[in-house]
């Protein structure tokens, strides 16, 4: 039997982290998936609260690792990649550091995966530039 009781401390940590790096994520997931998978949005926030704030690695490093993993997985991860590029930027990771992490993955995911990820990252960077120009 699965224990469905939430870990409120992990949820609280996850909520704080996701609202800092991806405001509205839980609400967006709930609106999209709740009718099919009740509790999915909360579960993801709680899972983030178990993984991201562990304190061993800096948050910026965790986001770069996530970007690298999503890059190596290929183009099907584009939406998630853009979310994590944006989160990394909010945590102070430079465009150059993100591009370098993506480039490093050309060795593991291949050049097409690297170009797909680099193009996704550039879309995030361009959106940021548009926000600062307003």
UniProtKB/TrEMBL annotation:
<dbReference type="InterPro" id="IPR052512">
    <property type="entry name" value="4CMD/NDH-1_regulator"/>
</dbReference>
<protein>
    <submittedName>
        <fullName>4-carboxymuconolactone decarboxylase</fullName>
    </submittedName>
</protein>
<dbReference type="GO" id="GO:0051920">
    <property type="term" value="F:peroxiredoxin activity"/>
</dbReference>
<feature type="domain" description="Carboxymuconolactone decarboxylase-like">
    <location>
        <begin position="38"/>
        <end position="121"/>
    </location>
</feature>
<dbReference type="InterPro" id="IPR029032">
    <property type="entry name" value="AhpD-like"/>
</dbReference>
<dbReference type="InterPro" id="IPR003779">
    <property type="entry name" value="CMD-like"/>
</dbReference>
<feature type="region of interest" description="Disordered">
    <location>
        <begin position="1"/>
        <end position="23"/>
    </location>
</feature>
<dbReference type="Pfam" id="PF02627">
    <property type="entry name" value="CMD"/>
</dbReference>
